[in-house]
Amino acid sequence: MRMQRDEGARRAPGALEAEVLAILWEADGPLAPADVQERLEGDLAYTTVVTILSRLHDKGVAAREKQGRSFRYHAVEDEPGLAARRMSKVLDNEPDRRSVLARFVSNLSTSDERELRKLLGKPRTGG
Questions:
Q1: CA 77 from chain center: how many Å?
Q2: Contact 23, 31 (CB under 8 A)
Q3: In a domain, 127, yes or no
Q4: Are 66 and 109 contained in the same domain?
Q5: Are residues 38 and 19 in the same domain?
Q6: Is 39 in the same domain as 68?
Q7: How many other β-carbons are positioned within 10 Å of the β-carbon of residue 60?
Q8: How many structural domains are present in the chain?
Q9: What confidence score (pLDDT) does residue 2 get?
Q10: Ramachandran assignment for 126, one of left (phi > 0), alpha (psi -120 to 50 degrees), beta (any other)
């Protein structure tokens, strides 16, 4: 499946990384850069795709495994897992975590707050 975008439209900052990550999420297994290049809309150079995959690897979002003289890439986490990790990272960088959490909860919709409270009432799973 090729990703679609408007003809002549420039990608927003980070959009190409997001497109590549979406391709990795949709894949049944690890992909070579050429596989990712084939699924992307437009005529991106192979080296550009390799650069994006390397950046995702450096950020810890994609893992790679050596196959022959090249690498194959896969997403480290699914979409909800990545969003949760990003939220945790933002919280980790704030000195007043309690205030940030309180503000976060106060900005939630009623249904999201209810869901969060329900999740907080469950026993913790994992580490």
A1: 7
A2: yes
A3: no
A4: no
A5: yes
A6: yes
A7: 11
A8: 2
A9: 52
A10: left
With a CB cutoff of 8 Å and minimum separation 6, the contacts of 92 are none
pLDDT of res. 13:
76
Instruction: Compute the average pLDDT of residues 40-66.
Output: 95
d(CA 101, CA 124): 18
The range of the structural domain enclosing residue 92 comes to 79-120
- pLDDT for res 8: 60
Question: Span 69-92, mean pLDDT?
Answer: 95
Angle (CA) 14-35-84 rounded to 5° is 40
Amino acid at 22: A
Q: Is the pLDDT of residue 54 over 60?
A: yes
Q: Tell me if 39 is assigned to some domain.
A: yes
Backbone angles phi, psi at 99, to 5 degrees: -65, -40
Tokens of 107: 């900005």
Question: What's the one-letter identity of residue 47?
Answer: T
What residues pair up with 64 in beta bridges, in sequence order?
73
Residue 88 domain-assigned? yes
